[in-house]
Amino acid sequence: PLLPDSIRLLRLLPSEDETAPIQCELFHYSLQESGRRTHPYEALSYVWGRADNPQSIFVREHDPTSGNGLPVTQNLHAALARLRYSLFERIIWIDAVCINQNDDREREQQIQFMAKIYALANRVIVWLGEVAEDSDQALHWIRAAGGTMPQIPLCDGMSQQAVTALLQRPWFRRIWVLQEVAAARHILVMCGSMEIDGCAFALGIDSFQRFDDVRAGLQSLTSSVTYLIRGSIFRSSFSMSRSGRYSLDICPLGELVDLYRAHEATKSHDRVFALLGMSSDDLSKSRLLPDYTVSWEELLKRLTKYLLCEEISVEILGVGREIAVIKGKGFVLGKVLFVQSNAVQNERVNVHVIFKNGEISDSLPLQTSTTSVRDGDIICLLQGASNPTIIRQRQDHFEVIAIAARPLTEIPVIAGSIDWSTFLQLEILFIHDLVLVWDWEISLDKSQHPERYDRVLQCSTELHGPLERATRIWTVARVLADVRKSKKARKRLQEAVMGYETAFGIQHSDKLETEYDLTPLSWAAKNGHDAVVRLLLAKDDVDPDMKDSQSNRTPLSWAAEKGHEAIFQLLLDTGNVEIDSKDAFRRTPLSWAAEGGHETIVQLLLSKDDVDPGLEDVSGWTPLSWAAEKGHATIVNLLLST
Predict the structure, then answer these.
(1) Could you please report the per-residue DSSP string of 514-556?
(2) pLDDT by residue (tens digit) across 588-640?
(3) Whereabouts are the ANK repeats (predicted)?
(4) Integer Cα distance of 48 and 283 in angstroms
(5) What letter does residue 13 receive in the DSSP assignment?
(6) Which of 283, 272, 304, 282 is nearest to 175 (CA)?
(7) CA angle, residues 19, 24, 29, in degrees to nearest 5
(8) Taking the C-alpha atoms of 526, 529, 534 and 538 in order, what is their torsion angle to the nearest 10 degrees?
(9) The whole model's pTM is what?
(10) For residue 71, which phi and psi values (nearest 5 degrees)?
């Protein structure tokens, strides 16, 4: 077993016979006294490849006279054959050999060292595989394009096809390679017998991506790797947290997840664990550190709650159990006005935001995420979260585009603007009950079909059924109205009302032009739909006192104005409504009931100790003023007798 803070290194023994069996020795090496300097070993970055038809290498550990055959994949065997010198031994770290793959605890411990292992190596060797599909020609072109030539060399059809084939190799798709090249101080890229410096390789690929006919999916895939290769030379090797965890401190975990969650791993857990070593977050208390005994569903739940907040509801659905359905209360900040690509760094975009009050922000710099941000995407803040989330409207829910985006620099308020940290200290009214879908089944090269999310939501124990769907569509309508998409909001509102009519066999003849301001409960209370009110109040996540987004009226206020006595009593019986709640015009339920002449409701309100019958609205009118104006003598007498 390995001692704490120790690793194994592989001594690749030389042979002048290229066909001779590969002979190696394993030995233990302590990283404890590493300091900041690199060490005289190399680290291999490669793809394991298919496990069928393995080939053997002979490994001695501790006892030089013993040697056991160790089966490895054909790709690793080919890499070792290319790396073996004829006269000198070579010291290499290779995960498949230097970590006991049959010991999950050792894997978990060694995974936390990997950033340090690659950072301390004097060189990281990227092995792309053997020669195939004109890969030699591709590397010749990449070397020329990444050199000092004043112009990008011509890329004819054959060269472009060869480069494209090279960039489609599995190495570019794997998630572990991201940390490996990000940590490297010096990179050598090998493909067959060809070699090229890592920096020149990255520059050459960036030049290739400038051609118009390079597929967007391929650009996204390769730019994420070249961005890390280019940036590695400017980073300090690694940092150590108070808990003893090593990290490259590239950016927060939320941004890393948005960037790289579509990359592939044999075990789903590694799509999270492979990013931890690049995160700038303090993860010591996150419950995200490598532990393969935790199920994938539980790990995805933990990650979602860590990036947003512990109070949200998370349900994992989908065929592969890789779709997180998130429920929480949200506040809408604004929408994306337009997205501007960064001409210098094509892995970044500048997002311009228009806030709800119509003000336009300075550009918000974002990394190019797995799902690209588009014009019209909505920026919201979930209750309890510390970063904004970018979402996209779907039929009856929202799709998560960026789970934890960078905070906006300034937020407009009535008296000017405030910074993000000050904004978070305000008493924010989270009025929207959001249902968000965060897709981890997303592919690097396949577009997603949002319609499939509808089928996924129907599998939820909490979200199936016509009433739930109508309520979700209503929320979509309210959010769209919040960002001034009035036509789309009206359309969604009509769909929601039709859903309620279908579910309860009710008719609704009122005009809908302005009702997207209302919550579903306010709409039902206003229109006298007792059955809808009862069902909504039976749901745990429905707030009986939630105010409408523009009028600030509550369901109790609407029931009082319209004289719906049964609904009014239902709302009172919850014990969770504010009797004297003031709307945007400072009118109370008593004021509305007095104006409407609803004697029973006025009597109910006056029987409550916490009702103040003398409250004035913005015009200085009291409930008595309204009753007198409308000629409701009985109510005037009731109010005068208080």
Answers:
(1) TGGGS-HHHHHHHHT-HHHHHHHHTSTT--TTPPPTTT---HH
(2) 999 999 999 999 999 999 999 899 999 999 999 999 999 999 999 999 999 99
(3) 551-575, 619-642
(4) 28
(5) -
(6) 272
(7) 155
(8) -70
(9) 0.82
(10) -70, 130
